[in-house]
Amino acid sequence: MKSLSDTSISVLDLVPYPQGKTISDAFRNTLELSQKAEALGYKRYWMAEHHNLEGIASAATSILIGYVAAHTKTIRVGSGGIMLPNHAPLVIAEQFGTLETLYPGRIDLGLGRAPGSDASTMRALRRDHGARGVDFGELIEELVGYFAPARPDQKVKAIPGNGLEIPIWILGSSLFSAQLAARLGRPYAFAGHFAPGAMEEAFELYRHQFLPSHYLNKPYTMAGISIVAADTNEHAEYLSTSLKQRFVSLIRGNLRQTPPPVKDMRPFWTVQEEATVQSMSRTMIVGDKETVRRKMQDFIDSTQVDELMITSDVYEHSERLHSFEIIADAKKSAL
């Protein structure tokens, strides 16, 4: 059985700007959180590609990865993930080839196939490229080809990019992504922080079908998970109402910036919406250090994941920093 003390923990940052805050605030907060995460011993700091979503400022993911990597020293920095169908694989190879050359041995490339936004924005992003109907696996194969050592007869090269070993992760929230990661012999990350429905089945399928590769000789799993930690269980529950309100706005098709927490959620959702939010957030952990430690271990026991990728969507930046401090302390206390 896996233990929390032996399980790596990492940070997923959506680069949020809550109500009353600006995008400039979000970038400053990301830098401070990444440096705090490095000091606390988190393994990775990933940012996710999203477009046209109020309250999330991580659209130019590659630029933000460079920004964080330039102001940290040891923590791995990467994408969780780049939505590859939004881009020409050559462009991503060049961007991440540049990042890996600038910050060697510290860059991760997580890849997803979702648009990272709504259908109208997807059309604006993908243009003719998205109309080709190219399979996600084919796009990954093309991308990997650009990272391979250049052949003498190769007409199109990623410069920089060719000949670089950049860890590529397959991200998803479905059985399709699990099967693809297994077939490619790549590490697999599941988006359990917002779509946990098929998580256990996806991990089982990935492990069962995994084919060892040049990149990985045995399965490696990561689970996205939301944690809101505070000094007391009561305060953590209070802080978690910000994320619950945001989920409600998502359900209603009117996503808005993260609002301040409230003492009572009853005026903010219907019975049906409450049930939907509970389903969406069934893996979310809320509590003090001991509660977080115990529930993190329970989650590891039930999923047998190798790594936790943690997001903590808390309204006040100072409370968010403290949440990640408590999470790191919870892991240390498991020793």
From TrEMBL:
Entries under InterPro entries matching the protein: Bact_Lucif_Oxidored, CmoO-like, Luciferase-like_dom, Luciferase-like_sf
Pfam family, one: Bac_luciferase
A Gene Ontology cellular-component term: cytosol
Domain Luciferase-like: 22-301
SUPFAM superfamilies membership: Bacterial luciferase-like
An example Gene Ontology molecular-function term: oxidoreductase activity, acting on paired donors, with incorporation or reduction of molecular oxygen
Similarity comment: To bacterial alkanal monooxygenase alpha and beta chains.
Name of the protein in question: Luciferase-like monooxygenase
